[in-house]
């Protein structure tokens, strides 16, 4: 992975960071790097995530899912970190056939189940606690749908969960293959574990390659941001946030990385959205969003860092020749779709710079190794930003209030938060 | 449609707007409403969009696509406003089988074409000018793929374009059914026209119902924001942006409105991202993003308005009974998935309010009429904000720089913007 931070420097962009400021920040980066290395060595909560490329046992995953590898479809039942990493990996590897139930919209649950050939579908249920309401509710619905379709769901299901809890108990009772969630790793940092790799393994993806790339990213961490792409990216995000870029728009020029932008949004928001800090992650997609968001990115407030993700190579899809007037420059028999998207990438990057809007270019390899490298590098970047901010990167305390309120509303116990719902201030216009 | 702005008031949220300030703003709303009505009466550029529910001829659309209604799949080839409205309408109507080529990623174009049964696919090509590079390049690739698959693409294609240009010429040469883009309407405001309704019409959707709902939204515009849901929403967005909510996170609790959040993001960004103004639209999804973005929305900066979109009703999908400990409150045989998502909606709304984070509730009917009403109401809200800001709502001048640069890079002429690309400031870490 390569990071080019030139367009985030203060001689190009506003806000921007000077090279001098980056050099001064680099002293803090060195201390954070030592902290991260210590956390990794001690397998401390959260920091342990960066060890996953070493500790995840791909062979164990392959053996557990072996009875399901005849399936052409995988349905992941999970939410948040229990779904996003898996979708990101399978889509980035170009694997089709991975569906997900990561919501409790009844119309959507029904739609997904109606569309799937259930006899040809492997189900991966993921919940660390084994009690996540959305996941368990959907799993109950899936089991019933499979039974109604004449499919023995116990033959088609693999579970990834913690050591205890209802999902573990169900796996033991029904004899389901069961994998462990990794110890000491929040869900959003668990893509390179059982949590993120099982669907890709069922669909025949190169999960070993993903782990190899993750190890490369881990090994590229160094004492200086000028020697480590992950830290260079994190340091620029931190410096620019402090200088006013409170939004980070992540814009891959690769459709296969569209879920990556979602995954990044969770990583950034849940890890860094604390104490009144944290960039707001915005999910974009190149070239499509040039026709949607670019007007704002160029001419709106100077409060955004745009992270442009470029692919180091493209498959060859020639644009057929045409004699249509005005299109000869495209349909000349030599230009490919890749040439077009690459030109648009370069043009957008330059157009942001010309408007003084800060942007960074990440160049990734569209290979399993490149995917693993990207994910682990972004995790390390996120941890760096959290350390520089001094926030608790690995927890998400603010979501507990709503969980208690919802549980109270559903009759799952007495919670004062549920009472607050009835007291809502209303001003209705209809 | 119902709008509840109670949680955006200054006695609840920071930033928030006082009722007194809204009353003072209401005088300006009245003047803007008169301006909008005048623009509609004169069919002025942009304002004409609000006339589409009256002027769009559903019968003409049905007749043009009639030869294609045997297709189970529709492929829209378009980008930006030529694709988002169509995807939003078909998905909101619950129609499956609508694919889209709205990018020029060669891997994605190949993936989409490989996955489609081309003999059973109708192609809808949309470009106002008929020269949009991405759209025309993809169309050339689609034609070739159909020919290679033994399908006569001239029998399977409908075109929506302007009066002149290469697409119009191709339609005439090949005898394709061709529809007109509406006059005086930017693409992002054209969902309720040929541009947005053709795929739904081919797939048997109730496009007439969408237009009925659009008319209802139009008729609900009034001289006071307290009498008009669309203006109430727009006025609160404007007031909160000025008070620091420079981000607008749109979070539908309906998967079928996921593309709506994308459509809204284009509407908001291209129309209002001007002169250093404009809220940054963020696309979210409930309940899923409670496990991703909610931590940031509650505990991050107070620079966000969260627009929560609730459904007025849900299909009945019961959660099967279970005796699993800890889940009895869900699997009691009476609770439905809809109960769960509704409880999560109310809990999230209250949790944001408890943290003093401003939010607004839009309640929509999950019907064709409700969809049309929502889209037109958001367009009117956007026009109101643009008028209040005094920006040019209906143009997108900032994207032209990049278009010229890309064209220059591809050998489509001499453009000085292309030279700027080579001068990029680089600081590479790898």
From TrEMBL, chains A, B:
Gene3D superfamilies found in the cross-reference section:
Glucose-6-phosphate isomerase like protein, domain 1
Instruction: Give the SIS domain ranges.
Output: 64-220
Provide the GO biological process annotations. Answer: gluconeogenesis; glucose 6-phosphate metabolic process; glycolytic process
Q: What is this protein called?
A: Glucose-6-phosphate isomerase
Instruction: Give the superkingdom in one word.
Output: Archaea
* Organism from which the protein derives: Salinirubellus salinus
The keyword Isomerase is assigned to this record: yes
Tell me yes or no: is DNA-binding among this UniProt entry's keywords: no
- PROSITE patterns per the UniProt record, alphabetical: P_GLUCOSE_ISOMERASE_3, SIS
What keywords appear on the UniProt entry?
A: Gluconeogenesis, Glycolysis, Isomerase
Q: Which PANTHER family has this protein been placed in? A: GLUCOSE-6-PHOSPHATE ISOMERASE
A cellular component term (GO) from this record? cytosol
Any GO molecular function:
monosaccharide binding
